[in-house]
Design goal:
Blueprint lengths: L9 H12 L4 E6 L4 E7 L5 E3 L9 E2 L2 E5 L2 E4 L1 H5 L8 E2 L12 E3 L2 E3 L1 H20 L3 E8 L5 H13 L3 E7 H13 L4 E8 L4 E8 L3 E10 L4 H20 L9 H17 L5 E8 L2 E8 H7 L1 H21 L7 E5 L6 H11 L4 E2 L5 H24 L4 H19 L3 H7 L3 E3 L6 E6 L7 E7 L10 E6 L8 E8 L11 E11 L12 E8 L5 E7 L5 E5 L6 H12 L2 E3 L1
Parallel strand pairs: 1-10, 6-28, 10-11, 12-17, 14-19, 17-18
Antiparallel strand pairs: 1-2, 2-3, 2-4, 5-6, 5-7, 8-9, 12-13, 13-14, 15-16, 20-21, 20-23, 22-25, 23-24, 25-26, 26-27
Bound molecules: adenosine-5'-triphosphate and magnesium ion.
Length: 571
């Protein structure tokens, strides 16, 4: 476990926090990871600081154990029960975000959103005790390649946990924000290679004097350290059976599987610094000592690494199309799995780069904390400016916000100004479009995309005019879809419908034979990647507005909040 990259004893930090603004609200940045999560805030010296949990660690396993009907356990001890208590433990829930899945524990139904909410509650409780103040406003990070469904699910997890989610931020952008604060300087084009526990993404970001701008992003939400662990686990089991020849099959023994899983992750981490490690295993009276070398480990996982390299290549191709003059000045490695030497070595071999590790486990949480503060300042300044009568008034109001925020969070005005001076601009990770009938083949529907992957956000208005299908048609159904895979395709099966992403325009006057009604569609996507669509029937002006709220409906959300808020969360 990566402890204390910039660590200090919990008590010392707590003492200092008290000296600042005891009990005052702060804003927090949360890295809700597939395998480990972290929560950070800007301390009174202006540094992004990661809160330690009650076992004094800066990272908390994202593992939930449904212990009793009224208590769940989140963190290390839940992780240690993952195999032993397989029926009551959920790991890697981030991989299910945005999916319509349900889990049942002790007669209650949970969704990926509500299980993530339990992790968020654990983090919020630890942060509250670490900073001795309430935790309300938060920014939660997501992989750059998360689509709208997954982002909205993450937003809802925050709501279910009772948090005020002031922003959803792509993880590589958070890492770049932190990089900029610690190592910034001249304008640079940075490639972030982020290999965490469950997801991989690669993002090219321009870090400039006033803006941090994403140029393009790509990734795989199902590729991470957990896959390397699984390979090593299978290898150890196979070798154990071959070497020790146990009388019973170990595959059915949960406790033994747990032990092998723990050892696999431990040995994987050791192999990042050592060339070879022995693993001692004992089961049903049989024992074996299995030596695993780094070279062997690299061979058994090379196809996983290949997949990341292929995505990097695709990203560079996109970069060539989007910004032909851009050159990569710096390659940042974030995510705990980039500690494996094979990652940097391979990037050097393939691309001639000299990548550097950038606080792999904590940069995202720290960057999110910086962004959270700047988001609060920005929102308050926008509101103040809207109410101002003149330009001078607006400037005074903006300056007052800096003073107010500085006082509220116990920071210097200089710190608030510095941390909130940069704008961040992201891109759309996946294409969006509407479903249309193919008029040349009336059995076929297809997706007409209006916005594409890597379009800068906000997109501005994207317009398109559709037509009714029959002359006597009096209503139309508008349905929104998001690209499902890595490559855009108009085939229906290559796109996912957005729940709540559809609606009807009714009462259209029947058109004379030979004529069809025109439906004008305007779609726009805001800077957080959330979408709005307006469809208007031209002759009557009748219209439909769809603001996509993906995932749980309002009613399901209410039920989830009730269910989760009555449960106690312990560590
Ligand atoms: N020294 C190390 N060598 C190899 N792997 C490591 C090392 N330290 C941590 N890891 C691995 O890094 C992963 C955790 O990294 P991190 O905390 O960045 O991921 P995450 O935030 O949980 O996942 P994601 O970003 O994919 O949602 C785990 O798979 C862990 O085993
Ligand atoms: Mg991560």
């Amino acid at each position: 476990m990566a402890e204390g990259v910039e660590g200090r004893a919990g008590e010392g930090a707590r003492g200092r926090a008290d000296g600042g603004v005891k009990g005052a609200g702060r804003v927090f940045g949360i890295d809700l990871g597939t395998t480990y999560s972290a929560i950070a805030y800007i301390d009174e010296t202006g540094r992004p600081t990661v809160c330690r949990n009650d076992t004094n660690s800066e990272i908390t396993p994202s593992v939930v154990q449904f212990e009793t009907p009224t208590n769940v356990v989140v963190g290390e001890s839940a992780k240690q029960s993952a195999f032993i208590d397989a029926d009551s433990v959920v790991s890697l829930i981030k991989r299910q975000m945005g999916e319509n899945k349900e889990y049942e524990f002790h007669g209650k139904i949970y969704t990926p959103e509500s299980i993530s909410a339990l992790i968020l509650r654990r983090l919020a409780a630890d942060a509250a005790s670490y900073t001795d103040g309430p935790v309300e406003q938060v920014v939660i990070t997501v992989p750059a390649y998360f689509g709208a469904r997954q982002k909205e699910a993450t937003n809802k997890a925050g709501l279910i946990a009772g948090l005020d989610v002031v922003g959803i931020l792509p993880e590589p952008v958070a890492a770049a924000v932190h990089y900029d604060l610690t190592k910034g300087g001249a304008d640079k084009t940075v490639l972030v290679y982020d290999l965490g526990g469950g997801t991989f993404d690669t993002t090219v970001i321009q870090v400039g004097a006033s803006e941090i701008t994403v140029i393009c992003t790509d990734g795989d939400t199902n590729l991470g350290g957990a896959d390397w662990d699984a390979r090593l686990r299978d290898h150890l089991l196979e070798r154990f059976v071959a070497q020790a020849r146990p009388a019973e099959s170990p595959e059915d023994d949960a406790e033994f599987l747990q032990e092998v899983a723990n050892k696999a992750e431990e040995v994987k981490k050791q192999l990042s610094v050592q060339e070879s490690r022995p693993v001692q295993l004992r089961f049903a009276g049989a024992a074996a000592r299995i030596e695993v070398s780094r070279a062997e480990f690299e061979t058994m996982t090379v196809d996983l690494l290949d997949r990341t390299i292929e995505i990097v290549r695709r990203t560079l191709t996109t970069l060539g199309e989007r910004a032909p003059d851009a050159t990569i000045d710096e390659v940042l490695l974030v995510g705990g799995s980039t500690r494996m030497p094979m990652v940097a070595a391979r990037l050097t071999k393939e691309f001639g780069w000299d990548p550097r590790l950038h606080d792999p486990e904590l940069a995202v949480a720290r960057g999110a904390a910086i962004f959270a503060l700047s988001r609060v300042v920005y929102t308050m300044q926008q509101e103040a400016k809207e109410n101002a009568g003149s330009q001078a008034d607006a400037e005074r109001a903006a300056a007052q916000v800096v003073t107010d925020v500085a006082r509220q969070y116990g920071l210097s005005e200089q710190t608030v100004k510095q941390l909130s001076s940069k704008k961040t601009r992201s891109v759309l990770p996946k294409a969006f479009g509407v479903k249309l009938l193919d008029l040349s083949n009336r059995d076929r529907y297809y997706i007409k995309h209006l916005a594409f992957a890597n379009d800068p956000l906000p997109t501005g208005d994207r317009t398109f005019t559709a037509k009714t299908i029959h002359h006597a048609q009096t209503e139309v159904l508008i349905e929104l879809y998001e690209q499902a895979g890595t490559v855009v395709s108009e085939e229906l099966s290559a796109n996912n419908p957005l729940s709540d992403g559809s609606g009807r325009i009714t009462g259209i006057p029947p058109q004379p034979v030979g004529q069809l009604a025109n439906i004008d569609i305007v779609m726009s996507i805001d800077e957080d990647g959330l979408l709005q669509l307006r469809a208007t029937e031209r002759s009557t002006g009748k219209h439909l507005v769809i603001t996509v709220t993906i995932g749980l409906s309002a009613e399901q959300l209410g039920l989830a909040i009730d269910a989760v808020s009555t449960i106690s969360v312990s560590s």
